[in-house]
């Protein structure tokens, strides 16, 4: 006699065991809500939360940190590409049927905020072959936490492109704000900038969304807040150190 198949657990059931028995989720595992139309948080699937858990864990070594960060970066890039415009495209399939689909319209480029943002370049290249990539070197002063611009090298025709601005950490928002000012000074209209980010602070993202209402933010998670050194909490520590040097 055929046995009845086990029911497939829903995503919510699947993550059940890591949560409290009363069913209430620990607050730090729940991305904070923001009510800005220009801020898009990735779907909070068990897979994404598991990947974030790996990179948040201070016991995670560099090789795993790179591997799991790269997986989240790929999800961010795929979601970011959903925000680019498409036009209708008609094709004929191998069985001679017409299919009315879409294709991307417009030119794009990536711009990484060095150093940590460079970690997101490969994820973009994996999806957009031979994409042009510009660089902006901004460093946060360790004492004051204020961003300082050191260097920029951007495609000459950047004003005609959609720009995917890359930085995994968004704490006070100072570095990203300075990078956006650089892009705007080069003639990139705000609505053609997409900021891709792994973890944002609620205050940073709110200020940014209000200051640049036409720019879109795609982030994996909005965390609880900032500590006294303006590090994101619970956060993951210094992304650049963990990805490149630790
Ligand atoms: C980190 C991070 C952001 C910035 C976020 O870079 O990659 O660029 O801090 O902080 P903010 O939102 O308060 O400006 P950092 O300047 O530490 O340099 P790094 O990329 O070399 O680690
Ligand atoms: N930069 C980081 O790498 N992490 C933070 O939490 C804040 C700034």
Automatic annotation (TrEMBL):
Region annotated Disordered, chain positions: 1-28
Co-factor requirement: Mg(2+)
Pfam families noted in UniProt: UPRTase
Annotated CDD domains: PRTases_typeI
Pathway assignment: Pyrimidine metabolism; UMP biosynthesis via salvage pathway; UMP from uracil: step 1/1
Biased composition range(s): Pro residues: 1-10
Xref: Gene3D superfamilies: 3.40.50.2020
GO biological process: pyrimidine-containing compound salvage
Keywords on record: Allosteric enzyme, Glycosyltransferase, GTP-binding, Nucleotide-binding, Transferase
Phosphoribosyltransferase domain segment(s): 43-244
Homology family: Belongs to the UPRTase family.
UniProt cross-references to NCBIfam families, sorted A to Z: PRK00129.1
Name of the protein in question: uracil phosphoribosyltransferase
Taxonomic path: Eukaryota, Fungi, Dikarya, Ascomycota, Pezizomycotina
